[in-house]
Write a structure and sequence with these properties.
Elements (H helix, E strand, L loop, with lengths): L1 H9 L5 H28 L7 E6 L3 H15 L4 E7 L3 H10 L4
């Protein structure tokens, strides 16, 4: 039993010290990353004035929803349809042309 336990411990390359060092680095990176959006938002005025919407699936319900959103946008909605995706390429191309997505 002791030989088996020693063998499993010797295969580990992570020591307590390296684990704590790595955990500290990850925590620091998360803290820096969490503060970036707030600073970026303060610098960019009007960044959320227009929202970009992308669609996955352009037929049936997706096509209907895109038409409804187009009417809302034309009536003054503050958003744009910026991307479309569909497994059936001709339908995707048709919607991309209709909504002028390049």
């Amino acid at each position: 039993m002791a030989a088996r336990q020693n063998r499993s411990q010797s295969n580990r390359s992570t020591t307590r010290r390296s684990f704590i060092r790595t955990a500290g680095a990850v925590a620091g990176a998360v803290a820096v990353n969490a503060s970036l959006p707030a600073r970026a938002h303060a610098r960019v005025l009007g960044a959320n004035d227009r929202i970009g919407i992308g669609f996955i699936g352009c037929g049936g319900r997706g096509g209907y929803t895109m038409n409804q959103l187009k009417e809302m946008r034309d009536a003054g909605g503050k958003f744009d349809i910026v991307a479309v995706c569909d497994t059936y390429r001709p339908r995707m191309d048709k919607q991309a042309l209709l909504y002028k997505i390049y």
